[in-house]
Specification:
Length: 108
């Protein structure tokens, strides 16, 4: 399961409105190879749901995760920060052994 913080939910709803996204477009979270720690998060809107996708819903936000990425993302919380140290979505991942300074990549 992926948990969505209240701030992340609010920002997702703002982005949907700003970008004129449809109700059929959900959040897709995936993990790809790359970054300084070996794995990178990928986050975006997606209207396509594959048969092999795992679907989670938290606080009314529907999240799509492919089977491979689920192994790395189980128990992760999606946060949004707008503080002095940067603005954007952050992943609080209990499976990550190491993360890079920017928080965009990790290793397990």
């Amino acid at each position: 399961m992926i948990i969505v913080s209240d701030k992340a939910k609010a920002r997702i709803l703002e982005l949907k409105k700003e970008e004129n996204r449809t109700e059929n477009e959900n959040i897709r979270v995936s993990v790809k190879g790359g970054g300084c720690s070996g794995l990178m998060y990928d986050l975006g809107f997606d209207a396509t749901q594959a048969d092999t996708d795992h679907v989670f819903e938290d606080k009314g936000v529907k999240i799509l995760v492919d089977r491979k990425s689920l192994l790395y993302l189980a128990g992760t919380t999606l946060e949004f920060t707008d503080g002095l140290n940067g603005k954007g979505f952050q992943f609080v991942n209990p499976n990550a052994n190491r993360t890079c300074g920017c928080g965009e990549s990790f290793s397990v």
